[in-house]
Write a structure and sequence with these properties.
There is one protein chain. The chain is α+β, with helices and mostly antiparallel strands. It contains 5 helices and 10 strands, in the order αααααββββββββββ. A 6-stranded antiparallel β-sheet has the order 1-2-3-10-5-8, with no helix packed on it. A 4-stranded antiparallel β-sheet has the order 4-9-6-7. A hairpin with a 3-residue loop joins strand 1 and strand 2. Helix 2 crosses helix 4. The longest helix is centred in the N-terminal third of the chain and has 14 residues.
């Protein structure tokens, strides 16, 4: 997978990997434990942290979920000043080779696990299923254009332009274009208490 096609705002794979590693270590987790929590292989976690492998958006989301945080925090440093204005050119964007992108509209704030994003799905694109977040998490969706098939724990809901929905973020959820013409929707995500803050007694390997 070509890294240049995934991160559009200049963040290198090495920088992304270093941020993921720092978040993992701050939670006292080994690579093995992170792999188990995310459902991603240990080798993949290690390669992503070393900047040797470009993760898909789903893989990046699963890593963030395993760490009890958001993709936004893995992509950016916390803002030190308020108010914050995010110009369009400065917003972090991740693109998946399957034909969709996520644009992060909210700043990363210290001790706040919240993400506001705009997602564009190409014609007929299924973004896949996202893992359940920590208990107490909340997600809100609003469709701008096209038709979105939102699936919560295997139950589909079709949303038209102007429709919105809420669901607990600690359930499995999936997004797909339901028309074959493309879809744009907004999603606000508020994460519950961090799922992993304890020290992992698992022994670190040399690349951990």
């Amino acid at each position: 997978m070509d890294g240049e096609g995934v991160l559009s705002t200049g963040l290198s794979m090495a920088e992304l990997g270093a941020r993921i590693r720092a978040e993992r270590r701050s939670r006292g987790l080994s690579i093995e434990r992170t792999a188990a929590l995310s459902g991603i292989s240990r080798s993949m976690v290690s390669e992503v942290e070393r900047g040797a492998k470009t993760p898909s958006v789903l893989v990046l989301d699963r890593l963030a979920t395993a760490l009890g945080t958001s993709i936004a925090r893995l992509l950016d440093e916390p803002a030190l000043e308020v108010p914050q204005v995010l110009r369009h050119a400065a917003q972090r964007v991740v693109r998946d080779p399957s034909g969709w992108e996520r644009r992060v509209l909210s700043p990363v704030l210290p001790n706040v696990e919240f993400e506001f994003m705009r997602t564009t799905l190409g014609p007929g694109v299924d973004a896949g299923e996202f893992a359940a977040h920590a208990p107490g998490s909340r997600e809100y969706v609003a469709v701008e254009s096209g038709r979105l098939r939102l699936t919560i724990d295997d139950r589909p809901h079709v949303l038209h332009p102007g429709d919105s929905a809420y669901y607990p973020g600690d359930r499995r959820h999936a997004f797909a274009d339901d028309t074959g013409t493309g879809c744009v929707f907004y999603l606000a995500m508020e994460l519950g208490g961090r799922a992993v803050t304890h020290h992992d007694p698992g022994r670190e390997t040399p690349d951990g």
